Amino acid sequence: MLLALSMIYAGLSHAADTPADAPETPMQTVTVTGNADDTAYTTRSTKSAGKLDLSLRETPQSVSVVTRALMDDFKLDNINSVLANSTGVTVEKVETSRTYYTARGFDVVNFQYDGVGMPQVFGNVQGDIDTALYERIDIVRGANGLMASTGNPSATVNFIRKRPTATTTASASVSLGSWNNRRIEGDVSTRLNESGTVNGRAVLVGQDSDSYLDRYSPKKTVAYAVVEAQLAKDTLLTVGHSYESNRSKGVMWGALPLYYTDGSPTNYPVSTSTSANWSRWDTTNNTTFAELRQNLGQGWTVQGTLSYITDKSDSNLLYVYGTPNKVVGGGLYSYPSQYASNQKQTLADISVDGKFNLGGRQHDLSFGYSWSRSKLEDLSRYGQGIGTEMLGQTAFDGSYPMPSFDAGTEGSNYEDRRNTVYIAARFNLADDVKVLTGLNSTRAKSNGNAYGESKYKSASKTTPYVGVVYDINRELSAYASHTAIFNPQSEVDATGMPLDPVKGKTTEAGLKAALFDNKLNASGAIFKTQQDNTAEQAGTIGAKAYYRGVNAESQGYEFDLSGELSKGWQASAGLTRLTSLKGDDGKAVRTFIPRTTLHLNTTYRIPALPALKVGGTLAWQSETSVDQTDTIRTVQASYATLGLMARYEIDKHLSLSVNLNNVTDNKHLTSLYWTQAYYAAPRNGSATLAWSY
Q1: Exposed/middle/buried for 218, CB within 10 Å: 0-12, 13-18, 19+?
Q2: Which residue, among 160, 207, 215, 154, has the nearest Cα to 181 in the 3D structure?
Q3: Taking the CB of the first residue and of the last residue of the chain, which one, N or C, has fewer CB atoms within 10 A?
């Protein structure tokens, strides 16, 4: 993989375009926003891996970026489609309204907004997170010991919000797609006073659709407003709010059974669903944030960020379980429930960064403190008729009657607090050698109960980070890094004591290249990731379960490329190979994760017809499986999906785009994360008319 990177570095021709102009406002040059080139598939710098603003080549860890241009070209309108087009990330769509993500063999639970972490309560994402609010999304793979206080050694997803621009800009688009999918989107940024010291931006999205799945009908509304005010020459205040609602009918809770009573695999039509006519799942997110950035002089700045987030969920659900009879039907049973949750999060972060001189050289330093509090209340109201057999094919036709939800109640009420102190420094040891090092010291504590089980946990740990970058020449670097992370857990052992925290660590090394005046970034890496002491149920004492800690390790290599290959030719590509993912006994674990994944997105502007851009996307993954019983295994064979796009610029303001997905109409399951699954969307497409100013 490193050899392949060297060959690409040596073989590609130099692009002749001059770099885009820097932003006009001094404060904006230090605010992490999108690439100045709105057609680029890469970025010039990021803070997502080490608190310091570094180029991808200077960052001693694997980082992928999904830019606004890539999202627009391929209609990546939600986080599932973005991460499915990211190197090394698998999207585990277990239901219509809940999704898990994995990287390097482990679950992704670390999500950030402009570098400020949002502790995950559930370990999965509910609803359909829209991407219209973001200029770029960064994915840092492996443990992220500087940026994330707790979590898994998998990846950190950092959403970079759109910010006001120095000049007036506006855009609007209307999309029509398969299954009556309709989407309207608008984005306006302008000065709010004559002097230009106050600027604002607003984004609005409305989307309504039917689905290839029987009875499923999602609807989404998104609104975002942000204001930047230059309070003084060196003081910038930013205040913003986002609102996102998902109103989905005909949702699945759980999915389809995957084998019959005789052990043979099921093979339903792609549209098959176990939802009831009355099932629904509504989610609402409100996020308010404020940032105050102060230039202290001599290259030093201080920034404080405060965020308040509420996530609410309300649903009527039907879970279908059991093993169907292939000949006469039946064998499946009902489990209706109403579920509601209310999560509130408050987060604060203050950081200082700048440069200092030592030993005749200039070095970089960042340090700070972050605090978070998350409160969760949820309630399940169980429906009458749990365990009723669904005869014939009634499990799939939506006809199960809506019961009264008064058979019993259970729920959760707990609070999670985290305090973190961090420091990171990049030492310029020589012209061609840089060392990035730091510490993250976190105390995490939770109290409360969930469904009759205690959620108490308390742990403190200091995790290190060290990375070295050696510049082979002006465009090619070699790097190595090691970092760790931990995650408290509330599961108890046979003595009733909570298990020690999960511990994760990542070691990796590789080559990185920044080519063509940083318009193309490429990297190749080998890695080893360990996650120790993850809770696994070991038995029961009476009606109470107890757990033991298990260990797992993954090894592999990755290749990532993003940017401009030549004038008018953009590409984003990635290959990940897990050469090993095994447990304590040396046996393969988490076989639902593909050992090899490949993605390629590319567009090309036709020189003879510069108004026309064409492109394609290809994704491939290797075989996955899940053991249903000691003798029955469900296997999803390897598969590839192909997408195509074309955009024609009618004039400098108006364009028409067409996107086709799953062109070969490949039939495959969305995930084997659970022992149930459903089918991915068949061939589909959309047309978008877009206007910009």
Answers
A1: buried
A2: 207
A3: C
The phi, psi pair for 180, rounded to 5°, reads 60, 35
Residue pair 337/382 in contact by the 8 Å Cβ criterion: yes
Between the CA of residue 320 and those of 174, 233, 273, 395, what are the distances in Å? 38, 62, 10, 7
State both tokens at 559. 């290749």
Scored b (16 or more CB within 10 A) or e, 450-489 reads beeebbebebebebebebbbebeeebbbebbbbbbbbbbb
Task: Look at strands 89-93 and 106-107 and give their pairing.
Answer: unpaired
Encoding tokens for residue 430? 């020589």
Residues facing 461 on adjacent strands = 442
Domain ranges, ordered by start, for the chain: 45-272+286-692
Of 192, 197, 244, 199, nearest in space to 218 by CA: 244
Bridge-based pairing of strands 181-191 and 198-208 is antiparallel
414-429 in b/e form (b: 16+ CB < 10 A) is bebbbbbebbbbbbbe
Strand boundaries in 567-611, DSSP class E: 569-583, 596-605
> What span, in angstroms and rounded, lies between the C-alpha atoms of 128 and 285?
11
**How confident is the model at residue 20, as a pLDDT?**
33
Domain 45-272+286-692 indexed as CATH 3.40.50.300: no
Do strands 433-450 and 457-471 pair parallel, antiparallel, or not at all (unpaired)? antiparallel
- The encoded tokens of residue 294 equal 């102060």
Q: Is the pLDDT of residue 25 over 90?
A: no
Q: What's at 337, amino acid-wise?
A: S
- For residue 556, count other CB atoms closer than 10 A to its CB: 22
Measured CA to CA, the distance from residue 483 to residue 283 in angstroms comes to: 35
H, E, C per residue of 526-565: EEEEEEEEEEEEEEEECCEEEEEEEEEEEEEEEEEEEEEE
Is the separation of the CB atoms in 450 and 113 below 8 Å? no
Q: Any residues with CB less than 8 A from the CB of 556 and at least 6 apart, and which?
A: 104, 526, 527, 576, 577, 578, 579, 580
User: Could you report the per-residue pLDDT of 28-63, keeping only the tens digit for each?
Assistant: 333 333 344 678 999 988 988 877 889 999 999 999
What digits encode the pLDDT tens for the residues 517-542? Answer: 999 999 999 999 999 998 888 887 87
Mean pLDDT, range 599-614, rounded to an integer = 96
Contact 277, 312 (CB under 8 A): no
Are 141 and 106 in contact, with CB atoms under 8 Å apart?
Answer: no
Tokens (6 digits) for 27: 């404060």
E strand or H helix at 73, and its extent? helix 68-73
Band the pLDDT of 121: cuts 50, 70, 90.
low
- pLDDT band for 325, please (50, 70, 90 cuts): very high
